[in-house]
Amino acid sequence: MHVIKEQVETRMAIPGATLRQRTDFGDVSGYGKISAEYFTLSAGVDTTPLFQGLEGNLCQCPHWGFVLRGQITTTDAAGRQETVGANDLFYWPPGHNVRVNADAEIIMFSPQHEHSDVINHMIAKTKG
Fold first, then answer.
1. 77: domain CATH number?
2. How many structural domains does the chain have?
3. What's the predicted TM-score (pTM) here?
């Protein structure tokens, strides 16, 4: 799921402040602590080889985030693709790969334990 800024409901607008809210944007039930993450990614990055060996060869951690710049496409286990771009809010459910279409910067919030496991797996993959 992703939402462009203009599609997030404006709940309050006063001089100097606009408050937008998207409700029901994922569910963190059952997860403990979350981590905040800032990723800088170059066009062409594809996580497919980094996720080999994880369940389904996919990231099994959910992420909630915001695209500061660039464009990213996720692919789920069924092959469905979704593309997010600058100023989009997104939710990536468990079971995805990521391909960077244009140099990107994103901010994500993820369940800390689950995503640390994925990151450690990726680090090990890069060391061969």
1. 2.60.120.10
2. 1
3. 0.86
